[in-house]
Amino acid sequence: MAARRGRDGARHGVGVVTGPGRGVFHWLSSLVRNLTRGDRSDAELDANVQSYVDLLTDEKVAGGMPPDQARRAALIEAGGIESTKEETRRVRAGAWVAEISRDVRYALRLARHAPAFSITAVLTLGLGIGANIAVFSVVNGVLLGRLPYDAPDRIVKFQNHDAQNEFGVSERERLIYADESSIFEVFATYSFGAVNMTGAGDAERLTGAIVDAGVFDVIGVHAMRGRLFTPSDASGGPGTVAVLTEGFWARRFARDESLVGRSVTLNGRPRTVVGILPAGVRLPGDFTGSPVEVYLPLVFSGPPNPENIHYLDAVARIKEGVSLEQAGTRLRVRATEVRQEISQLPETYSVRLIPVDEVVLGDVRPGLLAVSAAVALLLLIACGNLAGLLLARSQQRAAELTLRSALGASRGRLLRQMMTESVLLAIVGGGLGAVLATLGTRLLVALGPNLPRAEEIGVDGWALVFAAGLAMATGVLFGLAPALVQARRDGPATMAAGTGRGSNAGVSLGARRSLIAGQVALSVMLGIGAGLLARSVAALAAVPTGFDPSGVLTMRVTLPAASYPNLASSRRFLDDALRKIRSVPGVIEAGATTHLPLASGMGDWGLMIDGLPERDENGRRPNADWSAVSSGYFEAMGIRVVEGRTYGAGDVAGAPLVTIISERMAREYFPGRSAIGRRMRMSSTIDPVYREIIGVVADVHHEGLDQPPARQMYLPLAQFPTGQDTGGGTRSIVVKSQGDPTLPTSAIRARLRESDPDAPVALVQTMREIVDGSTSVSRLYLVMVGLFSGLAIAIVSVGIYGVASYLVATRRRELAVRRALGATSGAVVRLVVREGAMPALAGAVVGVMGALAMSGLVNNLLFGVTSRDPLVFVLVPAIITALAVAANLLPARGAIRENPTMALRN
Amino acid sequence: MDSPTELLRGTLDLLILRSLSASPLHGLGISRRIGYLTKQAFDVKPGSLFPALYRLEERGLIAGAWGESDTKRRVKTYRLTAIGRKRLKVEEAQWRRVAAAMAHAMESGS
Fold it and tell me: What ipTM was estimated for this complex?
């Protein structure tokens, strides 16, 4: 109406509108009318054409023809009514929009009338697409997203190594390699460590990085406020400085603009904040765990440490025009010279350059790729199911479509109509998928807290574009196939065949059986992948940790160097705190360590052992991972004593110097003899004294349950170190309680506050949580692949059930005849199940072969199980085949419940 | 286009406008009237008629209204609009020129 009034207004108001102008206006108003009142204008056209036929009939009746005959003659004379309407609609303004919207309305009407089909199809697609977007988001965020560096392809991690191990860079080596200006544009070192902040509010333990000024040039970032470090900052002295991250600036200082230039107390020393680093800047090695919040300049006073301790990480930016290979070659040559200069370096010393994206992503890439493959399989299965559904549906609608084509609907028209239906399904399924993906992505990030750049994972624009593309491709591809099958049909023949009982039904049934076989094959592959991962996680869980996590609570206490300037003060605090904690009701034992198993790597130190050569035939010193522990530690952790004793109250400073070693170390360095009473010392000046071995304890997994335990030694905190008297540091306290280890948490915290109200306590968690956390990545893969294969199996079961129901429905008469002729119910059930289960069985066989072929993909995700584990390869196909049989059983039983005479009469 | 004689492109529109110049007509009426006007040379079938009717209506050259036929059937009756009448005049003049030119071309010796 509005359009009409507008037109009248134009006539009265302007009055001089010329013919063509009016025409345009008419066309526009018709367009609006057609689009807004599509249904009504359709009905109007129907009535108009109908009245034409009626009038023609009247004419013939008036001419003396009998009404029946007149009507038939009128219809023949009028020609194809459907095509007339079709042609007329096409000339209308906005015809294509109207046509699509009519198709959509028709499709929606159909969807409403077949809710089971619509819901199954939308759910199938939604799950398939949702899982794919979720995984795509994770992969996109973690693998495809750009590293937050400038020209990252020229950034490398500089890695020292020998035949067996990788190790860091020493101060001397730092100076040597920083001079290699023919290879590197910039070479810089850094080291991560804890930084305590005091003074402003609560004492807080921060993750910090101590860096060369050049580090920021290597990764190519600039300060967002103030400046970054300059070489002059490295001179130390009173003008010490710090750079904070944007995240920390916001969290702790609420983005106070006046912070730059002010002083904060870090590690007990006032430092001037000179700049703020923008969020998202991270050094290699800082992509997992809690991010660095404070940067301090690496300060070297005096000559390089003569011990040549390898405690620095190094990164470099390769000079422009030098390839990674060239740089590597030149560096290896240089490394042989460096080996001559620095005698402590092992015989097989060399250097390699690792592209920075390898460093950041190397560990997770295989897992994410395997998960991507799994989710792609799931989508294929979902598509197969959808194609099966659409095929069955076009079968059911054969008569309707044939009728429409006989009434003059063109083949293209019908094709378009069917495409509209499947695209519509795809859009709704895709929408559902996007919703599921948003939830699923959150779930994934929650399950996998150790993914690099986890904070960048989210369903973003790209993921949605990916989803839309996926939905459209699925809709078009899997709508087109059945539509083409349908369109190729010989119309009258199909019509004569009634509701699809003709020979064409057989063709389509064959197609559906192949689809089932394909889906079963894919889900067997997925299921085998999930089975292998499940066996891995079980194997990891079964690894003896070397300690007993039950009832153990851990927490990290940081002793500020300012309050604890020497060893005596630190030891006093720890002794006092542990004594008070032991008095808490329910607590059985308490101890402390510098390195908690599975939570922090131990240091590796060269050793001198009485009776052993200083170096072995490879030029390597005896060495072991070390940690320092208090008395009560082994008891609280339940670490088994193999030989000798653990630390007691007598092992204090001034008493005979002692140490405890691990079973593996005892076995390798003292084979066939007792280690007790032997003497050994560190090659470092930190603890340059011989100690007597008083105990051998069980091997403990420190690095991860999938890594074999290293040689380990435990020095007594009460006696170590002897070479320097520096206080401060970080201690993990372990408390063994009866029952729930978290119950005494607040009492323990209270005792610690009594000992020192300023000592920051962090990372309160049970040992069980730490153990579980160490396998979280494996479990994440298991959860994801397990979920996908569960979904796949559910989808396939529905598909098999659908085909079986369809089969039974189309063979009702035949089955009834068989029963009427004396076939038992059992025989009929067997017949139906056998025919339904055959494609599933074939699919299972193909799936097993496919899984064997693809076993390499999961190989490096597995632990304690081979990628061709016979148990999994037998059990999974068996379960899926059994499900397939069960899905056939239901419709088969339906068939025998029906009265044969009824079936025959209908 | 309907036989017996192929309608020239655009001719059908002109014929419809012409058939409505005397009085409003419904679809079948237009068909019959064109037959009469062309001495049965053109038999316009619904397949061509309806698309043309809707096209002309959307251009505002004709206007349709629902009413009752002599036989008490609900029918849509079309009439020429002012624009349509103007267009008919223009087209008629143009047609005459073309027809005269064509006739001349056909008659003159080659």
Answer: 0.86
